[in-house]
Amino acid sequence: MRIKAQVAMVMHLDKCIGCHTCSVTCKNVWTNRPGMEYVWYNNVETRPGLGYPKQWENTDRYKGGWVLRKGKLQLRAGGPVAKLANIFYNPHMAELDDFYEPWTYDFEHLHWREKGGSLPVARPKSMITGEFIDQPEWGSNWDDDIAGGSEVVPLDPNVQKLQEHIAMEYEKTFMMYLPRICEHCLNPSCVASCPTGALYKRDEDGIVLVDHDACRGWRFCQNGCPYHKVYYNWNTHKAEKCNFCYPRTEAGLPTICSETCVGRIRYIGVVLYDADKVKAAASVEDPKELYEAQLSVFLDPFDPEVIEKAQEQGINHSWIQSAQDSPIYKMAMKWKIALPLHPEYRTLPMVWYVPPLSPIMNHITNEHELSADGYIPAVDQMRIPLEYLASILAADDTKVIRKVLLKMAAMRVYMRSKTVGGLDKTKLDKLLKEADTTAEELEEMARLLAVAKYNERFVIPTGRREMDEDLHYKTGACSIEDLAPPEGMVTYPFGRSGTE
Amino acid sequence: MEELFWWIIFPYVCGTILIVASFYRFVFRGKSWTAPSTEIFGKKWLRMASVVFHYGIIFAFIGHVMGVLIPIEVYESMGIDEHTYHLFAIAGGGVAGLMVVFGLVVMLIRKFSLPRVRVHTSFGDYFAIVLLLLVAGLGTYMTLIYNTTVVSYEYRFTIGPWFRSLFTFNPLSQLMLGVPTLFKVHVILAFVLFAAIPFTRLVHMFSFPLRYPTRAPQQYRSRDGYNKNSR
C-alpha cells in the first residue's frame, strides 16, 4: 500500500448559476498575460453546447486520454515511440481557432476622435496580430445559455451520442452549467504525454504542475489531456495549466475560483488513496465499471491501519485529520452523490460533480400532496435527460445518475416533510428504501449541501512551509516570478518594446 | 592569410561561441530554451513543411557523418569503392537536401503568408531559416548538379580530414586551400550556422527527448524543501 494524499474538489452543479465569477477571478489571477489571453484555467460551459475549446469531448479528433488496447492501458494519441516520430508536427493538436482569437477594443479611439457625425465606436482588435477584427465569429462563452441554439446544440458530442432526437422547442429545451478546471487526475494523461517529463504530480498533494525549466514546448500535453486543460503559451512557448492555486491551498485557503464562487457550489478537501491500485483501476475492461473502480482506490481515513501506514509514509497528522473531515470524502466516496467527469477517459479525474436536478417535464396534478410515490418517477421525467448526464458523468451508465438524483430528490422530500409534514412512517420508509439511504445521511447531506459554512466546505491542510529552509527569503517571493514577462517588456504585437 | 583565418581561427571561434553561448543560455536563460512552435497559430502547411524538413535534415546529418566524420580508409577497408560511394552519396544526399530545401521554402512562405505567424516571427527566426536555406541549398546544388556536371569532387581527402583534425586541435588547414570555392562557402556558412544555434530557435535540436520511451509514464515530484515528516 503506497498511500498518497490528494487535494480534490466537488462542484455541486445544482447550485451553479452560471455567473462566470470563478472564470473572471481565475483569469485575473493567472492568465491575464501576453501569450495567455485565450486561456481560461477555469471556464463555465453551458451544456448542451460546444464547450471550450470547441468539441473538446471529441476524442476521435483530439485523441486525449487513455484507451485499453489488448488489455493494456495506452495513450489514445499513441505511445512514446509514436510521439517521437510525430514530434515535428502534432497532428491532433487544437489550434487557436478551436479556442478563439482573443481581442481587445480600440478604446483609445473614443478619446481622440473628433466631435460630430456618428457615435464613435471602439472596434475589436486582435490581441494576436494587432489587426482590427471586423466581425468576431467566436469567443469565450459565445454559446453561453445555449446562444446559437439549434445551430450549436447538435454539435455537442454528448448530444450526438443520444439516441433520441433532442427537441429544440422552447418548452422542451434544457440546459445546465458545467464549470471546469484541471482535474488533477490520479492517472494524468498529460503527464504521460510529456516527452521531456516536465509535467508531474506533486507527491504531497497530487496537484499536477508544469516544470517550466524542463518544458520544451513539444505540445503533446495540450491534446493529451482529454479535458483540454493544458494550454500553450505562444509568448513563452511553454505549457501552462491550472495549478489548483497551490500558493493559496498551501496556506490553507481555497482556490480563487472556490473562494469567489457566488453560488458556493465548490468544496475542497483531502482524500487518501492507494497509488499502487491506480493503474489497475484505470485498466478495467468495461468503461461503466470505471466509476466503481476509481472509488476502490480511496482509503478510509478512519481506518486505524490506514492512519498508521499513512503516518509511516510521511503524511502528517493535520493531513490525516483533514482527510477525515473532508467534504470530498463524504460526497464522493461515502454518500456517492458526486461523480467524476467523463470517467471513460481513464484518467481518474479528481474534480467531482453532483449532477443537477431539473424541472419535471410533465405537468404534475397532485403537486401539493407530492411525496415519496410522486418523486420517484419524477426523477425519470426531469428535463435534462438521464442519458445526457450519464454521457458526461457516468460513461453512459444511467443507473448511476438515477441513483444520485433519487438521493438528491429524497433529501428534498425528507427535509420538506420536516417542516411541512406530509410524510408518514410507511411513506418515509419507502422513500429511504427507494433512494437507498437513511434519515441521518439525508440530514447530513442537507447540512453540507445547503448550510455548510466556509470551514466545512473548505477543509484544507497547509503545505507545511514552516519547515522549509530559507523561509525568511521566501516570504513575499512570487513563485511564478520567472513566468510573467518583466515590466516594460510587453510582447503584444502592437506594443512590443523597440518596434514602435 | 586565408589558411590561418578561415580554416583555423574562424572554425574555432564559431565552435567556442556554440559551446559557451549554449551553456550560458541553458544555465542563465533556461526558460527560453524551447522548440518555439507556431502550430497554435495555424496548422496550414506546417505538416508538409515541418515534417519533411526535419526528417530531411536528420538524413542530411547522417550523410555528413558518413562523408566527413568517417575516414575514407574505413570505406576502403570495407571494400566500397569511390564510384559506389558517390552513387549513394548523390542519391541519398540529393533526396535529403531536396527535402530540407523544400521544407524550408514552405516554412518561409508560411511565415510570410499567415498573418498570426508573420507578426510573431522575429529577426532571429528569419535569420535561422535563411541561413539554413543558404547552407542546404548550396549543399544540394553541389551534390546534385556540381557533382554530376562539373567535377565529382572527392572531399573525403580534404574537407573530411581537415574537419576531423579540428577536434584533435591540430588543424590540417593546408588541405582546404585547393578546395573548390563552392565547397569553401558551404563550409564557412555552416560554421556561421553553428555559431548562430545558441542565439536562435535552433537550440531545440539539443533537447530531443530520447529518454521518453524508457521513463515511467507517471511522474511524482515533491516540491523543493518539502519536509515529509513535519508534524
The rounded distance between the terminal residues' Cα atoms of chain B is 73 Å
Count of individual beta strands of chain A:
14
User: How many strands appear in the DSSP assignment of chain B?
Assistant: 1
CATH overall fold name of chain B:
Fumarate Reductase Cytochrome B subunit
- The helix/strand order of chain B is HHHHHHHHE
Regarding quaternary structure, what we see is heterodimer
Largest interface: A-B, 60 and 46 residues
Outline of chain B, from the CA principal axes? globular
- Any guess at the CATH architecture of chain B? Up-down Bundle
Largest sheet of chain A: 4 strands, mixed
- Please compute the radius of gyration of chain B using only Cα atoms: 21 Å
Which descriptors apply to this entry?
heterodimer, A: about 500 residues, alpha+beta, Alpha-Beta Plaits, two-stranded antiparallel sheet, 23 helices, B: about 230 residues, mainly alpha, Fumarate Reductase Cytochrome B subunit
Task: Offer a quick outline of the entry.
The complex is a heterodimer of chains A (500) and B (231). Chain A has 500 residues and is of the alpha+beta class.
Give structural notes.
The complex is a heterodimer of chains A (500) and B (231). Chain A has 500 residues and is α+β, with helices and mostly antiparallel strands. Chain A has a single domain (1-96, 151-493), classed as Alpha-Beta Plaits. Chain A contains 23 helices and 14 strands. Chain A has helices at 21-31, 59-62, 80-85, 96-99, 108-112, 149-152, 157-161, 189-193, 220-224, 246-249, 256-259, 278-282, 290-295, 304-312, 317-324, 327-334, 372-380, 386-393, 398-420, 425-435, 439-451, 454-457, 471-474, and strands at residues 3-12, 43-47, 66-69, 72-75, 103-105, 124-126, 176-180, 199-202, 208-210, 230-233, 238-241, 266-274, 339-340, 351-354. In chain A, the strands form 6 sheets. Chain A has a 4-stranded mixed beta sheet with strand order 12-1-14-13. In chain A, helix 18 (386-393) packs across helix 19 (398-420), helix 19 packs antiparallel against helix 20 and helix 19 (398-420) crosses helix 21 (439-451). The relative contact order of chain A is 0.15. Chain B is globular and about 60 Å long. Chain B has 8 helices and 1 strand, in the order ααααααααβ. By secondary structure, chain B is an all-alpha fold. Chain B has helices spanning 2-28, 46-69, 72-78, 82-113, 115-119, 123-150, 159-167, 181-196, and one strand spanning 220-221. Chain B has one domain: Up-down Bundle (Fumarate Reductase Cytochrome B subunit). At the A-B interface, helix 3 and strand 8 of A face helix 2, helix 5 and strand 1 of B.
